[in-house]
């Protein structure tokens, strides 16, 4: 039984079995839960359905969060893509629109899948849904890739953190980017080792990212960081699929992230006492919503 303490060990097991990471994770999780692989798959398939629904809900141009701070941006991004006005092409623009959509659904108290957290919920579904639509990948394959993503998330959680209050946003959007990058690689035919490199690259790109929510709400800058996070996942997956390797192994990057989070000031770990939260505009927005000073 895996302890999910090392991504390298998971990759070695997959290579030895000559199977994708998702297959060995599904089998192991079924055994650990004393359940069937089919039942475990159905549970993940239901989560994937919620992900799809959260994208559609978040694309509503008229929906606004209770605070009034956010809403409508996903629709704007989607429209820019449809009109050919975005500068980075359809895949990139669509992924950003979906990431914004899920994050806005969260801000509006809609149903989302924490992947791995509510604050980073848009990154993984945006990455997988976008590439699945673009390459016409069947749903079963996409759902299976979520097991690969979950394994990456568990290793990060066990060796570092997935909580902004403990490790800053590197622990939330960073973990989500790493999960998405690894899953993207598998979806696009990459090897388990390539998924490991994609995980490492994604995390390295986002080390040190602070958690500084304006007014203490998971809206500003969290929603736009989800768009950046899915972009980071695509960058990491592209590099890994091209055969580019991370000089620092993923397990070591995760430990480095843990140490960085421990060294980070508490004012930059979800307390809204530092960073963007205490800028003049950040304070004004807090006062507007809560009357705080």
Summarize the structure in words.
This protein is mainly alpha-helical and 293 residues long. It has 13 helices and no strands. The protein has helices at residues 7-17, 21-32, 37-58, 73-82, 89-107, 123-135, 139-159, 164-167, 169-187, 192-206, 222-241, 250-263, 280-290. α2 packs across α7, α3 (37-58) crosses α7 (139-159) and α6 runs parallel beside α9 (169-187). The longest helix is centred in the first third of the chain and has 22 residues, at 37-58. The termini are far apart. The mean pLDDT is 97.
Helices and strands in order, then pairings?
Layout: H1 7-17, H2 21-32, H3 37-58, H4 73-82, H5 89-107, H6 123-135, H7 139-159, H8 164-167, H9 169-187, H10 192-206, H11 222-241, H12 250-263, H13 280-290
Helix pairs in contact: 1-2, 2-3, 2-7, 3-5, 3-7, 4-5, 5-6, 5-11, 6-7, 6-9, 6-11, 7-9, 9-10, 9-11, 10-11, 10-12
Low-confidence segments, ≥5 residues, pLDDT <50? none
Report Rg: 18 Å
Shape: globular
Helix and strand content put the structural class at mainly alpha
Order of helices and strands: HHHHHHHHHHHHH
Helicity level:
55-70%
Mean pLDDT: 97
Largest sheet: none
Please work out how many helical segments DSSP would assign: 13
Q: N- to C-terminal separation? A: 52 Å
According to DSSP, the number of beta strands is: 0
Beta-strand share of residues: under 5%
Oligomer: single chain
Throw out a few tags for this protein.
mainly alpha, single chain, 13 helices, 293 residues
Can I get a quick summary?
With 293 residues, the chain is mostly helical. Helix content is 65%, strand content 0%. α2 crosses α7, α6 crosses α11 (222-241) and α10 (192-206) packs across α11 (222-241).
């Amino acid at each position: 039984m895996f302890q999910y303490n090392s991504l390298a060990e998971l990759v070695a097991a997959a290579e030895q079995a000559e199977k994708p990471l998702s297959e060995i994770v599904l089998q192991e999780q079924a055994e650990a839960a004393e359940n069937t692989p089919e039942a475990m798959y159905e549970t993940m398939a239901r989560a994937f359905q919620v992900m799809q629904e959260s994208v559609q809900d978040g694309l509503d141009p008229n929906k606004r969060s209770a605070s009034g701070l956010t809403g409508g941006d996903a629709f704007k991004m989607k429209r820019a893509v449809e009109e050919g006005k975005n500068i980075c092409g359809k895949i990139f623009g669509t992924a950003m629109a979906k990431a914004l959509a899920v994050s806005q659904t969260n801000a509006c108290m809609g149903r989302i899948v924490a992947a791995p957290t509510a604050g980073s919920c848009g990154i993984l579904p945006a990455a997988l849904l976008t590439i699945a639509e673009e390459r016409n990948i069947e749903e079963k394959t996409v759902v299976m890739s979520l097991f690969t993503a979950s394994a990456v998330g568990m290793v990060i959680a066990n060796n570092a953190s997935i909580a902004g209050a403990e490790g800053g946003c590197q622990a939330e959007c960073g973990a989500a980017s790493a999960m998405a990058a690894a899953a993207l690689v598998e979806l696009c035919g990459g090897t388990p080792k390539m998924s490991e490199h994609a995980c490492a690259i994604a995390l390295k790109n986002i080390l040190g990212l602070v958690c500084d929510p304006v007014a203490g709400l998971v809206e500003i800058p969290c929603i736009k960081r989800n768009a950046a996070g899915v972009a980071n996942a695509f960058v990491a997956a592209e590099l890994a699929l091209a055969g580019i390797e991370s000089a620092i192994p993923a397990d070591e990057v995760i430990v480095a992230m843990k140490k960085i989070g421990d060294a980070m000031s508490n004012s930059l770990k979800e307390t809204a006492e530092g960073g963007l939260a205490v800028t003049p505009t950040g304070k004004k927005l807090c006062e507007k919503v809560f009357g705080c000073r």
